[in-house]
Amino acid sequence: MRNLVLKLHIYAGLLTFTQLTLYGTAGLVATVQRGAERPKIAHTTRYVPFTVVPSSTDQEVADAVFDALKLPLSRRMPGWFLRRTSDNDLLLDFYNINGIWRVVVLEREDRLRIEEIRNSTGLFLADVHGMTPGDAEAPSLVRAWAFYNEFAMWCLLAFCLSGGYLWLSAATRATWAWVSLGGGTLTFAALWMTFR
Questions:
Q1: What pLDDT, in 10s, does the model give residues 61-115?
Q2: Contact (CB, 8 A) for 135 and 145
Q3: 80 CB-contact burial (10 Å; exposed 0-12 / middle 13-18 / buried 19+)
């Protein structure tokens, strides 16, 4: 039995290693980051011809832009997020895991201005680590990562439980292991009571 649990422990640890590394890195970046403000400076800017169908609503224009551009890893613009620039041009921010595709519909010029605003590595890692399978509208690649996140969390649980079993079933248990277990348990209990 012990050998089977040992194999489970090793494989669960390997399957969750990437996720734990990402979570740790995202946590460290969030700790030193000055704020949650996302970058607003365009990395690249390009123009694409586009004619707005007369008497279209802003939502219909946003959907037409989304269908025409097929911007990677983005999704349709929700109606509550539509807004206009100071020049009364429709402004569409298509958020994605890598940053923002900012599209300005220059209706009078029959074209779109497309700005690619990239996330920093820290913001990218924070976005990736926050993906959950509950987001049914997310692009396929993002959902695949979200399912891996979920799977890796179950692997982490198996890793912890199998590690506890391996420690308890060992012939000798080091004093420092007991001290670590007691210290961790007391710290968790104290934090739990403090935050309740």
A1: 999 999 999 988 888 888 888 999 999 999 999 988 888 899 999 999 999 999 9
A2: no
A3: exposed
Q: 107: buried, middle or exposed (CB in 10 Å: 19+, 13-18, 0-12)?
A: middle
Cβ atoms of 146 and 135 within 8 Å: the answer is yes
Contacts for 177 with CB less than 8 Å, ≥ 6 apart = 167
Output the CA angle 161-166-169, nearest 5 degrees: 120
Task: Round to whole Å and give the CA distance between 45 and 19.
Answer: 34
* Residue 49 φ/ψ, nearest 5 degrees: -65, 140
Q: How far apart, in Å, are the Cα atoms of 37 and each of 2, 34, 95, 120, 187?
A: 49, 8, 14, 11, 33
For β-strands 90-96 and 83-84, DSSP reports them as: antiparallel
Structure tokens at 148: 């891996």
Q: Kindly state the helix (H) or strand (E) to which residue 2 belongs, with its residue range.
A: helix 2-32
Q: What is the distance between the alpha carbons of residues 193 and 187, in angstroms, rounded to a whole number?
A: 10
pTM of the full structure: 0.70
Q: How many CA atoms lie within 13 A of 61 on its CB side?
A: 24
User: What is the edge-to-edge ordering of all strands in the sheet holding 83-84?
Assistant: 44-49, 111-118, 99-106, 90-96, 83-84
